[in-house]
Amino acid sequence: MPTYIVLLGPPGVGKGTQAEIIAKTTGLPHISSGDLFRENIKNATKLGEMAQSFMNKGELVPDELTIAMIRERLSRPDCSAGALLDGYPRTTVQARALDKLLTEFGGKVNHVPYIAASKATLTERLSGRWTCKAQGHIFHVKYNPPKKAGICDMDGSKLYQREDDKVETVSRRIKVYFDQTAPLITFYRQRGSLSEIDGDRSIEQVTADLLAVLGN
Ligand SMILES: [Zn+2]
Questions:
Q1: What are the pLDDT digits (tens) for 62-112?
Q2: Dist. CA 18 → ligand 1 center (Å)
Q3: Is 108 exposed, middle or buried (0-12, 13-18, 19+ CB in 10 A)?
């Protein structure tokens, strides 16, 4: 029976990095819904073109279309032993659609690790980023500070904050994530498939907990 993992975690918790490590360790392909979306659009697949037409009209891509992309991806040979899903599902409606889809593959959602972190930690991590104007070198006021405040170590150019890294934008993104995901977390917790992992620690410690939860 294939194994399906749904990895949950707010922006700034290092979910993408952990997904890569887990994929490598377990041998399950990492399926990022964002990447899958971009791939379909870039390759102008039928699903990609349909998605694009909604986006061109400024409309949300319907759930049926997203699940069709996931179905197509999961039916590829590299997913015969299962997959690690990242970015999907986002809502309980999508979670139910995923359950239905996985029965087609003779499987179910086996594990839902949720890498949790406080809003304060996430805001600090995401809003501390400063970018170099000349070449895009990235610094962090706490984790990777430049030698001289506001100046790039590599080329001496000025550092600035991208719109996405400003504290107001970051706070809004985090709030949207928690508002949107709270019902999904409750959904998986009630089923007993959720494992909460403390994301306020080093990458290595989080990886160790994740692998323990997954039985590796
Ligand atoms: Zn620079």
A1: 999 999 999 999 999 999 999 999 999 999 999 999 999 999 999 999 999
A2: 27
A3: middle
Rounded CA separation 20/24 (Å): 6
3-state secondary structure the chain: CCEEEEEECCCCCCHHHHHHHHHHHHCCCEEEHHHHHHHHHHCCCHHHHHHHHHHHCCCCCCHHHHHHHHHHHHCCHHHCCEEEEECCCCCHHHHHHHHHHHHHCCCCEEEEEEEECCHHHHHHHHHCEEEECCCCCEEECCCECCCCCCECCCCCCEEECCHHHCHHHHHHHHHHHHHHHHHHHHHHHHCCCEEEEECCCCHHHHHHHHHHHCCC
User: How far is residue 88's CA from residue 74's CA, in Å, rounded to a whole number?
Assistant: 13
Report pLDDT digits (tens) over 132-189.
Answer: 999 999 999 998 999 999 999 999 999 999 999 999 999 999 999 999 899 999 999 9
Please give the distance, rounded to the nearest whole angstrom, from the Cα atom of residue 173 to the centre of ligand 1: 27
Amino acid at 33: S
Catalytically active residues are 15, 90, 129, 162, 173
